[in-house]
Design goal:
The protein has 295 residues and is α/β, with parallel strands linked by helices. 37% of the residues lie in helices and 15% in strands. α1 packs parallel to α2, α3 packs across α4 and α4 crosses α5. The structure holds fe (iii) ion (FE) (2 copies) and zinc ion (ZN).
């Protein structure tokens, strides 16, 4: 199983620190932001200890495709009302693609965008023109469009919307998809019958485009359109369904990333990864995480 979590990439060790954090969770995958997710200030990649990080990854059997980059969530390609927001998004995304290359990563996860008040069709078309502008020089990089919960005016909450983007972008071959379990549940998909959801994904998007899975439980009921992540087994999706997903034979080679919330300032990832691997749900997990107990 290829599984890891969101890890932080901060001074002084940057990417090397991120890989060390992943290793401390017994993970063989990781996801990073190239800087604070809520803003666009970025340090040069040359200062981020990329070479040392890749050496450490190699020593722990973490392959380059298992290092996922997430674009900051403030960039909104679908904004039709404020040209400056759209232009900033295109400019930032273009530079972010270059940073992904420098980090020697492959997948850049992107929230497609929110149409604000312009309507879904206009928003989707704006995303397509934004991607066309930004995707001129992709190299080996693939942008993984994330399935969204549909909160507010978010787009990408139906597989059909992602398909529409893929079909209309000039370089559709450089697009893939990141499936977020909390988001699809909140968007209304019946994740308890995951095999059916996966069949629908395959029919509309194609399983070969699935780059990574964000494994999160949800604080809200199916269709709530809220997007509030819960710890594994402590939400409305539940442990059994998430276990089924991460062990699904058709998803064996797909990278799984946890984005579950910290518990009293402690990252839960080492324990949640252990629990998902082992197949048994630990009811006292939250207590153990608070006390920093390794499973
Ligand atoms: Fe995301
Ligand atoms: Fe996500
Ligand atoms: Zn989310």
């Amino acid at each position: 199983m290829i599984i890891g979590s969101h890890v932080s990439m901060s001074a002084p060790d940057y990417l090397l620190g991120a890989v060390k954090e992943a290793v401390s969770y017994d993970a063989n995958a990781l996801m990073i932001y190239t800087g604070p997710p809520q803003n666009t200030r970025r340090k040069p990649i040359s200062e981020m200890k990329v070479k040392e990080a890749h050496e450490l990854m190699q020593r722990h059997g973490i392959c380059k495709q298992s290092m996922i980059v997430h674009a900051p969530y403030i960039i909104n390609l679908a904004n039709c009302l404020k040209p400056e927001t759209y232009e900033l998004a295109v400019e930032f995304l273009t530079k972010e693609i270059e940073r992904v290359k420098e980090l020697e990563a492959t997948y850049l996860v992107l929230h497609p965008g929110s149409h604000v008040k312009a309507g879904e069709e206009a928003g989707l078309d704006k995303i397509i023109s934004g991607l066309d502008e930004a995707m001129q020089n992709m190299g080996n990089v693939s942008i993984a469009l994330e399935t969204m919960s549909g909160k507010g005016s978010e787009l990408g909450y139906r597989f059909e919307q992602l398909r529409y983007i893929i079909d209309h972008v000039e370089h559709g071959e450089a697009l893939s998809v990141c499936l977020d379990t909390c988001h699809i549940h909140d968007a209304g998909y019946d994740i308890a019958h995951f095999d059916e959801v996966l069949r629908e994904f395959d029919r509309i998007i194609g399983l070969e485009r699935l780059a990574c899975i964000h494994v999160n439980d949800s604080k809200n009921i199916q269709g709530a359109k809220k997007d509030r992540h819960a710890n594994i087994g402590f939400g409305e999706i539940g442990y059994q369904t998430l276990y089924h997903i991460v062990h699904h034979p058709r998803l064996e080679n797909v990278v799984k990333i946890l984005e579950t919330p910290y518990i009293e300032e402690h990252p839960p990832y080492q324990q949640e990864i252990a629990m998902l691997k082992s197949g048994s749900f630990d009811e006292q997990l939250q207590e153990k995480i608070k006390q920093g107990v390794r499973l």
